[in-house]
Amino acid sequence: MIETSNLTGERIRQYLSDGKRFDGRKLDEFRDISIETGVSKNAEGSAKVKIGKTEVIVGVKMGVGEPYPDSPDKGNMMVTAELLPLSSPRFENGPPKFPAIELGRVIDRGIRESKFIDLDKLCIKKGEKVWTVFIDIYSLNDDGNLLDAAGIGAIAALKTAKMPKYDEKGEKVLYGEWTERKIPVSKETPVAVSIHKIGNNLIVDPTREEEDVSETRVTIGSSEGVISSMQKSGLKELSIEEFKNILDLVEKVERDLIKKIEHQIK
Amino acid sequence: MTEKAERKIVIPGEVIMKGNDYLPGEGTEKKGDEIVAMKYGLAEESRKLIKVIPLSGVYQPRRGNVVIGKVENMTFNGWILNIGTSDNAFLSLMEVPRYVNKDGLEEVMDIGDMAVAKIWNVNRRGIDLSIKSRGLGRIDEGIIVQINPNKVPRVIGKEGSMIKLIKDETGCNITVGQNGLIWIKGNKVEDELYAKKAILFVTEKSFISGLTEEVKKWFEKEKK
Question: How many interchain CB pairs under 8 A, A with B?
Answer without folding.
Answer: 34
